[in-house]
Amino acid sequence: MTKTVNFTPLKDRVLIKRVDQEERSPGGIIIPDTAKEKPVEGVVLAVGPGVRDDGGTLHPLDVKKGDKVLFAKWGGNEVKIEGEEYTILKESDILGILNK
Q: 17 — phi, psi (to 5°)?
């Protein structure tokens, strides 16, 4: 189930909630928070309307609310909305959509 957030991105921006990493390595070692890498997987919670070309035609985004996506590790801007941490990215920073 996708969480509803009181936020609408502008143009080609996307609001993403990062998916937490496993706290154990494949070998069963517990990974402390300080050693964890930033996750590069997230769920799209909101999308902007798209971008307009020089002729004024609106081109909607390829991603939609609820899509599970991969994105650049250090991409986007981290923000807090209603006490929760999110990432705002341009659609071009999203590497791909994970198929279910």
A: -105, 120
Establish if 7 belongs to a structural domain. Answer: no
- Residue 20 to residue 35: CA distance in whole angstroms: 13
> Domain containing 27: what range?
13-93
In a domain, 66, yes or no: yes
What are the tens digits of pLDDT across the range 19-65?
Answer: 875 555 566 666 555 545 566 899 999 999 999 999 999 999 999 99
pTM for the model stands at: 0.78
Q: Domain tally for the chain?
A: 1
* Sign of the torsion formed by the C-alpha atoms of 41, 43, 48 and 54: positive
Residues 83, 67: Cα–Cα separation, whole Å: 23
Q: Six-digit token pair at 14?
A: 């996307």
Residue with the two structure tokens 């080609």: 12
Task: Please give the Cα distance from 2 to 46 (Å, whole number).
Answer: 10
